[in-house]
Design a protein that fits this description.
single chain; alpha+beta; 5-stranded mixed sheet; 4-stranded mixed sheet; elongated
Length: 474
């Protein structure tokens, strides 16, 4: 469903142009200022670094530029004890939060602001006290407080900008299974290499790989071409995060609800599944250039889940009520509620057997410890001894039958015969012992532990859906 593309990476120095975006010279200006700021920051020239981060923001108003300017003032204040630098740090941290109301680090930044406010008050009080007692030894105002020192050094952030023409495309990071990461236009920080997938209804999907550079402004600009050949499918459910499968479940989930993406025209079977709910499936006819919507209401199912974990399970079979549900462990599988006989077996090991009560919307975690089957050498020895006794007794019996009046032991033939009878009796006793040794339960049995986890349902409201979210609680 994805079409490969030629994506333009703009490391602004080599920028060609942006369709309907801000003028390229502004990006060039932002990139130049950003690079100058990073060099100054590494050289601990924090005033120059802050000024250039501000220039970058003027050219391209991206919140991360404000954060980096705040970091530069913060580090100057820490190095010099400057009240003015700390005040500017607080000011630009607050500007950053105002520019990015959904900032993931909002709580952390607000904590930093609180610490710096206290440091500003401490430094002002110390300066006032020093002015009031000019004859006293000068106070050390350059050493930061323990709270400021505990914050550590502040690192500036790399910056990635993703734009599309047209805008409003979904951005997926690394895998669609993770859900929509953001929509274009987007800017922010990313660490490490990532695969970027971009999708928009009525347009070809595009993907690329980016590796952000902490010293450069990285801009990924994509022109999405219209696609009349593909259809668009939107899937929502009352359970956010439900797994979505298409055509072949063995391939794995293609994403989670809410889900949207391009499908080839024709018939497709779609499954939506979530723990503790009845699976939903639907066959749809996708028409090129049109949108098909699926909005199922998943209902709670009277099933629980059996989760088999532990060592030596890679070749173990798991059976529930005599039916194999997993060919190899570890495994997790739905099980109908009720009393169930569970057996975990593996060649060369004693099976682990347990009877459990499975309840709906619960997960039973079973951790078996399989004991190795002991050897049967004692049974083998007993079988050999029994065979030897039986063979000897049979030989003696046949021998006495062939004796004649002229034979030396003719007059002892009855003794030999009864001795043969005794040998057969003893062989029978030893043989029974061998059978006992064969089938007796020798050695310690397989054991296991069982934990129960409730799959709790809680109300959930989101963009385009309302319903229940599922989670675990021990």
């Amino acid at each position: 469903m994805l079409s490969r593309l030629v994506v333009v990476f703009v490391f602004v120095a080599g920028l060609v142009g942006l369709a309907h975006a801000q003028a390229p010279d502004l990006l060039v200006k932002a990139q130049t200022a950003f690079e100058d700021a990073q060099r100054a920051y590494l050289s601990k020239d924090f005033d120059v670094a802050a000024d250039n981060f501000k220039k970058a923001y003027e050219a391209r108003p991206l919140p991360q530029f404000l954060y980096n300017a705040a970091a530069a003032h913060h580090m100057k204040g820490k190095a010099t004890g400057s009240v003015e630098a700390y005040e500017l740090a607080v000011q630009y941290y607050q500007k950053y939060l105002a520019a990015d109301a959904q900032a993931a680090d909002k709580a952390a930044v607000e904590k930093v602001v609180g610490v710096l406010d206290k440091e500003i008050a401490r430094l002002k009080e110390a300066a006032a006290a020093a002015a009031a007692t000019p004859d006293a030894p000068p106070a050390d105002l350059t050493t930061p407080s323990a709270d400021v020192a505990a914050l550590g050094d502040v690192a500036t952030r790399s910056l990635v900008v993703i734009e599309t023409e047209p805008q409003g495309a979904n951005i997926y990071l690394d895998d669609k299974k993770n859900g929509v990461f953001a929509q274009t236009p987007w800017s922010g920080s990313l660490d490490g290499q990532h695969k970027i997938l971009i999708e928009k209804r009525g347009h070809k999907s595009k993907d690329a790989v980016i590796a952000p550079d902490p010293n450069r402004l990285v801009v990924l600009q994509v022109v999405l071409s219209e696609e009349d050949y593909l259809g668009w499918v939107e899937i929502k459910s009352n359970v956010p995060g439900a797994a979505v499968y298409a055509d072949d479940k063995a391939v794995g989930a293609i994403g989670t609800t809410p889900y949207s993406g391009n499908f080839k025209p024709g018939k497709h079977t779609v499954w939506i599944e979530a723990d503790g709910y009845e699976p939903y499936s639907e066959t749809i006819e996708v028409v090129a250039g049109e949108t098909h919507e699926i909005s199922p209401t998943l209902r709670g199912a009277p099933v629980g889940y059996l989760n088999i974990r532990g060592a030596n399970l890679d070749k173990a079979k798991v059976s529930v009520d005599g039916k194999v549900v997993c060919q190899a462990g570890p495994c997790r599988t739905p099980v109908k509620e009720g009393k169930r006989a569970i057996v975990v077996s593996r060649g060369g090991y004693k099976p682990y057997r347990v009877k459990l009560e499975v309840q709906a919307k619960t997960e039973l975690t079973v951790v078996p410890s399989l004991a190795k089957k002991p050897g049967r050498g004692d049974a083998v020895v007993a079988y050999i001894f029994a065979a030897a006794l039986a063979g000897g007794a049979t030989g003696a019996y046949l021998y006495q039958k062939d004796l004649t009046a002229t034979d030396k032991y003719f007059d002892k033939r009855d003794t030999i015969k009864y001795g043969a009878y005794g040998g057969w009796g003893l062989a029978g006793v030893v043989g029974l012992s061998a059978i006992y040794y064969t089938f007796r339960d020798k050695g310690a049995p397989s054991k296991g532990t069982v934990d129960v986890k409730a799959l709790a349902l809680s109300p959930s409201i989101g963009d385009g859906f309302t319903g229940l979210a599922i989670g675990g609680a021990y």
